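User: Hello, can you help with two protein structures?

Assistant: Certainly.
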Amino acid sequence: MNRMARLTYLQRLFYRNPRGYRSSELAELCGTSQRSINRDLEELQTEPYYLPLVLDDDWRWRLMEGHRFTLPPVHLSLQEAASLYLAARLLARVSDEPNPFVGRALMALGEALPPEVGAQVQKVAATHLGDADSRFAKVFEVITLGWATGRKVRIRHQGLHSAHIREYVLSPYLIEPSSVGYATYVIGYASYFEAVRTFKLERISEAELLSETFEVPEEYCGLALLSRAWGVMYGDETTQVTLRFSPAVARRVKESRWHPSQEIEDCQDGGCILRVEVPHLLEMKPWIRSWGPDCEVLAPEALRQEVAEEMQRAAETYRRDPASGASL
């Protein structure tokens, strides 16, 4: 590997192993001379890495305790920076919990942008700074560090329909936001299940970074699995969902790419039919209901019946006199 690749690799090694390494061990891992490694260790402590390395009595180099993972400078075009700003805004809008790291990222981005727009971005950032010591912020920090460095994390998580908090050792393979659940999810191998599972970060009460490392299996391709999902619920088998939209909303439906598998067919009355293939139907239901009477489920029949019954119950609710309900 060339020197730049080696420096990046060394940085990752130190984050993965808090005990550190002797320079001879690093030379063997990198396939280079000990003399080259010593030069690399000096460079890692200067710009742009500023890695706070400590040499212990047993000649092991390690990261200073309490150091936070930092990235070297990234050079962006104005349009790339604007894209990151929009992505961060979307993430902030679909999060159950305020994420102070979104605010920090926007603040840093605003400082780098031209003053005319940088001031606007920083005003937005100030509304998202939140509490860096909140439970969610601490969980987010640990999970992302484990994900980035390939280290396992111990989590305490309470399922939506469970009265108990369970403890798992998790190998975080992937982090994914969801506009469906207004949340952020971590996907990875969980010890209790001995299988890959999805956990909502907002339901994790505690997270601890462990020294034990992991490797993502070569056969695992989370992004490919998620490409078939409507949100974060994925699977190998899919079901075709067929929806008919009224002429009043057909143009709006055809404006967007709702799912990679979608097919749209025009109807003679000006409406349209949308077909998608998804592994789970649950995440689609709120989206279907959001169209009200302008969306009709044609297939599968079980989904059609579920939505029809929910719509009927909603209609019954609105037929009642509000005064007969609970006091406001």
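That covers the first. Now for the second protein you mentioned:
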Amino acid sequence: MRKLGLALLAVCVLAGAAFGAYPEKNIQGYIMWGAGGAMDNVSRAIVPIAQEHLGKTIILQNRTGATGAIATTFVANQPADGYSILFGAENPNLYKVTGLSQIDYDQFEPVFLMMANVGVVIVSKDSPYTSYRELIEAAASGKTITMGSTGPGGLPYVATTMIEKIHDVKFNKMQFDGEGPCITALMGGHIDAVAVGLLAAANFIHSGNVKGLAMISSERIESVASVPAVTEVYEEYRPYLPWGAFFGAFVRKETPAEVLDVLRSAFTKAFQDPRFDEFAKTMGGVKLGITGDDAKKYIRQNQSVAAWLLYDAGGAKFSPEEFGIERPQGK
């Protein structure tokens, strides 16, 4: 009996040691967007710090294509062992309603949501509109206002659709291949306004080349504190917020809880590191720092707003209702 007890104890110790070794090897990280973009920059800023706490290297590679669906599908088909991490943005939230893919964040566990890219409505420095209210009232009066867009699903498109729905106005949308070209067109006088991510606009706001009229947020953002939150002007936006792009790390849903704990601990410590804090301030993004159920709630809110706005605007192939995506409360 004593020998049996010792044997069982040895098995438990060995099992604990085996599990406690995670990670036993380097980890693969797959970034859904290309080199030099916001998702890439955020991932490459936090990973070197996180791996200091993991004791192993996270080998990053950009696996681009199909609005992030290539990387998302690839990681979804890897073993659920914590050795394949998806570094993704908000795009999978619209895969089902656009028909792009049946795989979205329902198949993943959020390790950590690092940052958000909050939308900001900007105009050129010479624009006659000096406030967000002036811009909206001009549109409501019937004046033709040309807004930049990047097509259905992109932040400028969804944000503009939100504005149209809340204020019952219509803009003339001019499509460009990315937020950068939108801002270039704005400064060149080809469009009147555009809603873009703050990460794309912050430097232009700071230099005075464009004016920020409103953050699509319920709070002012520290890096551009002079730009009012949209709810300071119109409370009607509050049910749709928080909303915007986000950047996070994800693993397959079946990943053991113990492995998730190790990863979440490492990314939490990296997030709190002064080096990442400095990066976030330089980038102009909003630090999130959420995980677990809070992260899931944040993702569901983002999906609810974007999917229903896209569907109501005729930009989705399928109703969000088909996938159990609830409308934003009261909307």
